[in-house]
Structures are given as C-alpha cells and as structure tokens.
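debug: dumping io for the single-chain case to check the tokenizer round-trip. Nothing else runs in this session.
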Amino acid sequence: DGSAVEGAADRLDGAITTEFFGHTVDGRLVNDGFAEALSRAVGRPVRLARVVRDGDGQDARPLTIVSSASVRDLGSLGDRADLDARRFRINLEIDGCDPYEEDSWDGGLVRVGGATIRVRGQIPRCVVTTLAPDTGQKDFSTLNLIARFRPRIEGGRGLPFGMYADVVEPGRVRVGDPVEPVSPRPAGTTSAAGR
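debug: decoded output
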C-alpha cells in the first residue's frame, strides 16, 4: 500500500528456534514495529526474527549472482523482453557478459569491485520466480521455460538459474564496478553453461 516503517533492526526481544531450509536455526525476535507492519500487509500475524549466528539465515550460500543477459534471454524465450530480474531475488546482477556465462565460473574466483567471491554452484529455482515482484501474482512461466531450455542440476536437484557464491575477500562493491573472473574453476568441477 506504499506505507513505510522505520526503526532499528537491532532492537531484539525473546529467543526463537525455527526450521529454515531443513535445519534448526536460533534467532531473536526483532522489535520496533516491523512485525506489526508485516502482519497488516499479509493479513495474519507474523514475526520477524534475526539469526543469532551469521550464515544461518541464508538459503544455501550467502551470495547469489546472475547476469542481466541470462535474464534477458529467459525473458525472450517467454516473449517478455522486459522480464524483471527482481523475481529471482539475486544479490548481484552482472552486466556485460553472455547469457549463462556465470555458470562457467563455477568453482572459480571472481573479483567484484574490491571484493573477491568464489562461485559455488547453480541455484535451483522455485515457484516464487513465476510471481511478479510488485504484485505477487503469477505472470510468467519461469520454471516451464527453464525446464525446456536448460539441463537440470546434476542429480535432478532442480531447475538452474543463477549461481551461488561465497565471499572470499570482503571489499566495497558499488553499482558499475567491474566484475572479472580471476581464476579458472578448479579441476573436477562442472558447468552447465548455455541453454
């Protein structure tokens, strides 16, 4: 509805333990009005928690990457030239490379601005990617398109789009900073580059 909530996200209350992607995670409830605003927005009571231990509140890895070219290519396959990359919930969107080039970086080091990351495997996509970022309404057959044009992740573990990564050397990263692979992927790693 366009409303905004401001506050300190480090004002923490009671402890909470929950399941997160198949493992138990300890957290602390965030105070300062965020849970109330989220509850109003979704129409039911929700709580917002912050993990106790860094790294526990992420999917599989702390960083995700995808190229703008990959997003454009997928969009063109579904007659959607303006496909919004936000639907993939990616941390780092890279411009200036070929579609799915990021897949070929699996296992290798990549310099991003002042930081260095190690690319750590393909991201298996879920049904949330079929939803419009602004409305939450299903508006694009993301999974069907990926299934038709890209091989499944090895072992049938999902439909790949984007890559996971770890931070090897922290550093400042700004919009427009160069992104450059600095080492080849280690021997024995595989990649599913291309459609």
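debug: round-trip ok. The longest helix spans residues 68-77.
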